[in-house]
Amino acid sequence: MTIASSSSVYGVNSKVPFSESDPIFSAISPDAASKLACAALGDVYHHLYGMDIAALRFFTVYGPRQRPDLAIHKFAGLLAAGKPIPVFGDGSTARDYTYVTDTVEGVMACTRNDFGVIILAAGASSRMGQPKMLLPWGGTSVLGHLIGLWKALGAGQIAAVSATGDQAVSVELDRLDFPRVNRVVNPMPARGMFSSIQCAALWGGWKDELTHWAIVLGDQPHLRPDTLRALLDFARKQSSQVCQPSRRGRPRHPVVVPKTVFMKLKDSRAENLKDFLQTLPSGVALCELDDPGLDFDVDTPADYEQALRLFQ
To answer: Taking residues 286-300, what's their average pLDDT?
Structure first.
């Protein structure tokens, strides 16, 4: 069940940007109080009956067919008429606005939460000379971008795999308000990427309702959202097969695996993911996509600069 809530539930919270983990007991309007009550009922029904309920806190949605008494509609009308916009208070107030199509995309993504995501963040980044996951990217870090991207794509659960004792990644996950319950630790990252994948497969914290998992490399922040969305749609249609994007016929990452295959990963004796996939009798279904970002990973400073140019 999806509930239309509101950013007004944050009330007089002075901390910005807002976070889902912020206290929300300071409502200052009847609308906010009613939304909080609705969310509380959702918690009760989840506790008593196991219902999955999401309360989406919309931030001033605007766009076509918007109510004419709201600010954006008024502003646009006054600007079109060449009239000044009245400013109330001292002019220092600020507000987040969300275009209606972005809001609809978020609502639709909320209903498609059947896949989990494994973000591999345990690599040594030796060729980069510094941790790749902490490099700046789009106003946050590479790690923050990947988490936000897969959230927007509607992931039912995201887990980040990091190396034991990697304080830098741990601090960044704290900064990003990433839940500690969704953090997986790899005690032997020197064994390579496949060891992190197996740690994720062995982890007991996955939601039961997940049907597929996307194995996400930390060195591909430059992939386009529509590329990943097309891969997920393709994987839903090939529900029993492992799916990979391809570019000019060559398999690329990320890999999407169904539950039956994911369960086999934890006991596999393969040396790497490629060898594991070659043992599958059903093979791999390739989704041909025209995204130049599929052609390379971010391994070196030069790769990083190239990826930034492509992303921008």
So the answer is: 95
